Amino acid sequence: MKTMLMFDLLTAKKIAMSQMVLGVVVSLVIAVSTQTPMTIMPIMALMLAYSVGFTLVAYDERNDWERFRLTLPLSRADIIRGRYGTFVIMTLVGLAVGALLTAIVYGLAQAMPDAPILSALSEPLGWQVLLAMAVASIAFSLVLWLIALPLVARFGMTKAVRFIPLAFIILLPLGTALAQKAGPPPAFVVDLVTWALTSEGTIVLALAVLAFVAVLSALSCLLSVKLYEKREF
Amino acid sequence: MSDLLRIQNLEKHYDDFDLEGVSLSVPTGSVVGFIGSNGAGKTTTIKAVLGLIRPDGGSVSLFGEEVTGAPEKRLAQLKQRIGVVFDTCSFPEELSVDMVGKLMDQCYKNWNPGAFRTFAHAFQLPLDKTVKELSRGMGMKLSLACALAHNPDLLVLDEATAGLDPMAREEALDTLRLFMNDERRGILMSSHITSDLEKIADYIVCIDGGRIVFSVEKDVITEMAGVAQCRAAEFDAVADSGFFAPGAMRYERNTYGTSVLVPDRQAFAARFPAIALDRADIESYMSLMLKGGAR
User: Fold this and answer.
1) For chains A and B, what is the number of CB pairs under 8 angstroms?
2) Do B206 and B230 fall within a single domain?
3) Could you read off the pLDDT of B154-192 as tens digits, one per residue?
4) Best mutation site among A71, A78, A224, A233 for testing chain B: the one with the most B CBs within 10 Å?
5) What is the rounded distance in angstroms from the CA atom of residue B145 to the CA atom of residue B152?
6) Which residues of A touch B90 (CB under 8 A)?
């Protein structure tokens, strides 16, 4: 797994750096236009996880790299676990850079409250909002890959791209239909939201979401390993 | 002499192609040339050896250990002793030559960074160039350097010299000869360039339509066999002489007469001194065995 991680991280180094620069620009533009630095973390996490992820998966099929990689002393399980590890690391790096950028923007806004662009960004963000954004960033940046990676493991990127939109096309109307059928939120949902807004509720909910994403990641990884072991090259 | 690789009755079935009863081995200290036309089954056989596909029947043993159905982890461990070169340089394009070396260092326990640098220097590979900046020939040299720098016992080369110019091919063959100075090693080398195999192979295995057509020592082809150039009357005389067992004579008609594959050149020359006789080479032998008529 460590070897595969090294392969991916070294291969992705250049693209990750360029995406980080692009992410900083995009997140700052959006922060200024929406007048809140709240979106910086999710944008950085999503940009890094998605762009690096797609690049790595696309590289697999170039020059038969994926086939050649299997001739190296790596098991198929090592390859898949390493790939999941890369996505987690990219998400966390994006999140860390996003957090740092948020702090810098907020610090600058505090230091120069009269500056025309920065003045709108000086509104303090509570720790609960920041935590919620961080957890949401992790969940959203990983959710696509948790669905996509088993498909990529089974079919390869070229074929999987035919199925990935299909998965979302099926899930989206299903979710919408369920939401429409649900009617007004039941009392326990209202209670849950109210509880989530308390300090204790925010922390517990954040941990619960992280645990859920971790379990989902483990299940997705297990499925990918099984599918990849059956694939022929 | 033990076998580094032994394939027995290998089978793999696809909708439009079947690999049937393929058997071959790579004994220690030997180079086995694996020849055949495009789509004959060479790469499918190599894929089965390396675990890229699952055989439908038969067995593959590496270093005396059966790997058909073996756990992935075990196969990965055995791959520490194998160096592989395909017909393209498959490393990610963004990586530099130096970086590829560092990654291989992570992969192989026996990786020798000094040996890699020596090969890179000998092959004139600039360490700071990325894979995408390398020419096809340079890419192949990088693949070869990586395959050799972890001191493998078995090299598996699938059309590895295909993209190289004659001088670079000669250089690569010299490197392989040096590799074979250690008699505990072996090479399975699939190639269309039969002249390369004439220079380096000890055995020649030919596959066609998913079946092994012949498997012989190279000297049986290049030292013993010959190709007789017969005129019409000579051809009939040879065919009726009983020199060949019924159905064993392979021949091919051409503009000037008929070429006949002769298994024992000296015996044929003694029997038919008036018939022009050339040494056989792997290409003519393969051509007559695959495309020639039988009588």
Assistant:
1) 78
2) no
3) 999 999 888 788 888 898 899 999 999 999 999 999 998
4) A71
5) 12
6) 63-65, 67-69
Q: How many CA within 13 A on the CB side of residue A231?
A: 20
d(CA A96, CA B273): 86
**Number of folded domains that form chain B:** 2
Structure-token pair, residue A211: 């645990």
Does residue B143 sit in the same domain as residue B288? no
Instruction: Residue B234: give the domain boundaries.
Output: 225-294
* Interaxial angle between packed helices A40-60 and A76-111, expressed in degrees from 0 to 180 and rounded to the nearest 10: 150
Q: Are residues B53 and B17 in the same domain?
A: yes
Radius of gyration of chain B (CA): 21
The encoded tokens of residue B167 equal 């001088």
- Burial pattern B232-265, b for ≥16 Cβ within 10 A else e, equals eebbeebbeeebbeeeebbbbeeeebbbbbbbeb
What is the complex's ipTM, to 2 decimals? 0.88
Q: What is the pLDDT of residues A207-219, one digit of tens each?
A: 999 999 999 999 9
Q: Is A12 helix (H, G, I), strand (E, B) or coil?
A: helix
B220, B250, B266 - which closes a domain? B220
| Candidates B53, B79, B88; nearest CB to A72 | B79
Cα-Cα end-to-end distance for chain B: 37
How many other C-beta atoms can be found within 10 angstroms of the C-beta atom of residue A170? 10
Q: Taking a C-beta distance cutoff of 8 angstroms, is the pair B34, B189 a contact?
A: yes
Chain A contact residues (CB < 8 Å to B): 2-3, 6-7, 10-11, 13-15, 59, 62-65, 67-78, 229, 232-233
